Amino acid sequence: MKTLLYGLITGVLFGFLLQKGRVLRYDKQLGALRLLDLTIVKFMLSSVVVAMIGVYLLVDLGLAKLSVKSLLLGANILGGLLFGLGWGLLGYCPGTSVGALAEGRWDAVFGILGMLVGAGLYAEAFPYLKTTVLTWGNYGKLTLPQLLGVSPWVVIPLFAAGAVFLFRWLEKRGL
User: Which listed site, 30, 107, 134, 143, has its alpha carbon 20 to 30 Å from 65?
Assistant: First the structure.
């Protein structure tokens, strides 16, 4: 129960930050898709950096266990294409569609319903996918630190520094 409460609190906080960062707005979504306004990219990259630090800190303190999923190229490529198609058609990604609905934008309901239908179709197709797409390019449970043979605390500062460099570069170009 305590874990669910933590999930609820962090989810509400993340939704609040999505709203305050104005990434729920359609113009921001369209700007990201057209590579003209990268506010969403900067927001998500910031989230990744914070999550990297937080997750590995919790793991090192023994408060969490890292559960790495297998790297499946077929699944990632097909999933990425479907995700991009849905985002392009709807104008919201899954997280922002829920946030947009919370702000009262009823057009997001169609995307949420589409996600639920898609999840159901995936569940029905899973036995077939398990023997086809989900076997293509299976590299096992792999992380970047494992691949490089270094501590995560070597990769994290380099990734964070790269993110800061990218943020500055994007800001200079007005993106």
Answer: 134
Dump pLDDT digits (tens) for 37-68. 999 889 889 999 999 999 999 999 999 999 99
Task: Report the alpha-carbon distance of residue 53 to residue 62 in Å, rounded.
Answer: 14
Total tally of structural domains belonging to the chain: 1
- How far is Cα 161 from Cα 126, in angstroms, rounded to an integer? 39
Instruction: Show the tokens assigned to 45.
Output: 């990259």
Helix (H) or strand (E) holding 94: helix 94-102
State the pLDDT at residue 26. 84
Task: Identify the domain containing residue 38 by its residue range.
Answer: 2-172
Query: Residue 158: is its pLDDT beyond 90?
Result: yes
> Rounded distance, CA 165 to CA 160, Å?
9
Q: Which of 98, 119, 102, 122 is nearest to 110 (CA)?
A: 98
Structure-block tokens of residue 116: 């639920």
Q: What's the full length of the chain, in residues?
A: 175
Report yes or no on whether pTM surpasses 0.85. no
Q: What is the pLDDT of residues 85-100, one digit of tens each?
A: 988 888 888 888 888 8
Closest C-alpha among 104, 100, 102, 113 to residue 25: 100
In single-letter form, the type of residue at position 32 comes to: A
